[in-house]
């Protein structure tokens, strides 16, 4: 089931609020309209009382002694029309002869309002039974509904404006309340999204009580993932360590056989194949060890020390030159003093993998240059070759595990992935560009420069020598 909790909460809060507001609006309308209706009915009743005051009983019968001006004033109504009638029984004595039959109130001089029709129009009636002399009379007064509808329209428009304002305020309050209520959940999501794939430390449980079960479940899952990852890392490291000794012995035996049977081309060829296969297995073992180290440092608290990057390259020169000579590649070094904070073994893995990558993909007769230097507050490490280069569209992808651009070149596809992991752990950056003249490839790793005078995690200082 998919959906939005925020949207559902807003829906389930706003819909009842809308219904309640509608019921409230109807109630308020009735409360406002009924007194207004009663007041308008009272106006008609006062007209009936006024007519009663001017009724006289004479020898000729019932007369209405109301001056003509007062009569016009009595019928005057800006919004509608006023009708009246005075009857004795069913006989119309005075007024509008087409007045419909009147209801007879039970009490004398007590106006009785009701609705009906007159001359094809909806009107409001007020009927009053009274006695003049010895005669019982009915006084009826009617008013068209224009005035009442205007009052109703004013009430409705006022209520609509009030309800629209209240609904807008209520919706804003609901939206704000739901947003604030879900903020801890959104913060939890943001914190999880900001983590890398190897950051498996427990989440902080400084959360609302309702989120504690969720946080606990996530932390339990992270703990299981971390345990499984550590078990896998230990397995890789143990396997690699167990393989290194027999592989070193096998390599030594192959070297002895090569020397012993150098004069026999067939055996020398077979032993050469054995030796190259052993070299590949040794490299794969070293790659597994390097991968285990980087993954372990991803999940454990890191404690770095000051490392002279130029000195670390110098330690690897002999091995690098040996491999370059075998492939007849011109190798050069431009090393300036450069200090970084890091893990010595991982930085050595980084150097070995970048240089090995350049030597492995460069053809016979190519050149490879290794440089390091300080540049402001950064330390830059370069490995430049004149090999085939890497297409720009493929440069980001080469840092993925098991990605190989040329399957004909032996390798595991892990070297540059390990470089990327080490770079990330050291808060450094790695970029790929073209070599001099647009040929070949240049890998550039930029580290934060380490101040030799500052203390380091392990409490050691850089040897100035």
Automatic annotation (TrEMBL):
Record GO cellular component, one term: plasma membrane
Keyword Mitochondrion annotated: no
Main location: membrane
Membrane topology according to the record: Multi-pass membrane protein
Compartments where located: Cell inner membrane
Bilayer-spanning residue ranges: 12-34, 123-142, 154-178
SMART domains per the UniProt record, alphabetical: HATPase_c, HisKA
An example Gene Ontology molecular-function term: phosphorelay sensor kinase activity
PROSITE patterns tied to this protein: HIS_KIN
Occurrences of domain Histidine kinase (ranges): 238-451
UniProt enzyme class: transferase
EC number(s) from the headed UniProt entry: 2.7.13.3
Catalytic activity: ATP + protein L-histidine = ADP + protein N-phospho-L-histidine
Signal peptide range in chain numbering: none
Pfam families: 2CSK_N (PF08521), HATPase_c (PF02518), HisKA (PF00512)
Keywords: Kinase, Membrane, Phosphoprotein, Transferase, Transmembrane, Transmembrane helix
Protein name: histidine kinase
Organism: Noviherbaspirillum denitrificans
